[in-house]
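Pasting as-is:
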Amino acid sequence: MAEAVKALQQTSMDGAVEEIDLYGTGDHALSVGSTDSDAEVLGLSRNASKTEIKKAYHKAALASHPDKVAEEDREAADVRFKTVGQAYEILYDEEKREVYDTHGMSAFESGSNGIPGGVNVNDLFQQFFGMGGGMPPGFGGGRPKQPRKGANVDKPLKVTLEQLYRGKTTKFRSKKNVICTLCKGKGAKESAKSKSCGQCHGQGKFAVVLKLLAGADVQLSGFKQTFRNVGHGLLAQEDVVCSKCDGQGSSFKDSDKCKKCKGAKTNEEGKLLEIYIRPGSKDKDTIVFTEEADQSPDQTPGDIVFHLEQMEHAIFTRTDEHLTARIEITLAEALCGFSRVVIQHLDGRGIHLNQPRGRVTKPDQIFKIVGEGMPIKQQEAKGNLYLVVDIKFPDYDESMMSALGKILPHPEKPINADTVDEVDFEEIDDMEEELTTDEGHGWVDADEDEDDEAGGHAQCAQQ
């Protein structure tokens, strides 16, 4: 484990952050083991360039070709020829070369999972980088694969309660990238050939593992991504896309690029989307336009997803499919009954209530009206409407009080008591809140009160 860590990180003497050199500066020859031995195959130093590897491969392949040897030596030559090809395949590919230098040929054996000695690569990189699912990006070989489907585009859509009640159709003008119609997404002329990117060597990405002494995130020159510090001085890479070719691994000459998209493979295009909000839709409901997001070659477009955000209403409060509102009636209506429109509904209809004479309405009394709540989406049914009563008391004058005194019932027989105290009082709005406060409640110990006034605590007298 310690050797694997050493192979994956390096810090300079002055503490500066550097790209890790997985090859070192020694003169140990690179070798690829065959089924029989670990003999040298290409005879290269550990710091051999790709040009040197390619030249050595051509030389060794020519010398090992079965057609170039005697009949009795062909079987051995065939093994040698295949081994040379395997050496070239691994050493010429920078990522495979890194894995080989670190773990040897066991990294390429079936079932080894890339680490010799039975160590699971998932466990190793989980410990080093906080990652699951195998090696970090850049150690799997080849260009980064694009997902089969592009990313979705999420958009908020503010709606009123009236719109959710009645339903609504609205329009949204979308701008997105579409495959270029001239080059069909190639980015260049039909006959043009792309050139491998010199910066990432056709990989479209970089395999970079760094170490930090400080615990800050790092932005490196030439990279679009910020590297994330995962603790203990290790820094894990995160989708390090080549900035020169934008992760494509290749590019075209400017003269060969498509005249319409300028090599981008896509063009921006506007489209008018018609959004239908169903009656009864709720806050946080989604409306999905399938595959209407940006297009990209060799990839299914993502979706545009609208997220409904219900705005606060001045009168009605919604709870699932039910509605609640407060209505105001006069004191005369509360005592004598009423028959009138008490509220205007979300669709503009007036809601008429008939409270017959002789039935007194009390403050905060609730009227339940079945079937006048919110529509239930894709159903004929609706929730309920609950109306909470507020009673408006009139401003009194002397003549009104005299008139009411004659009309309203008088107090019953007075209470007789030997002693009568006339006391002051306060008006409170909430009895529950009043009882939970300390103000004006609770007992105070007389001795404790005296101790506080004396500026200290009571103590026993010493005999």
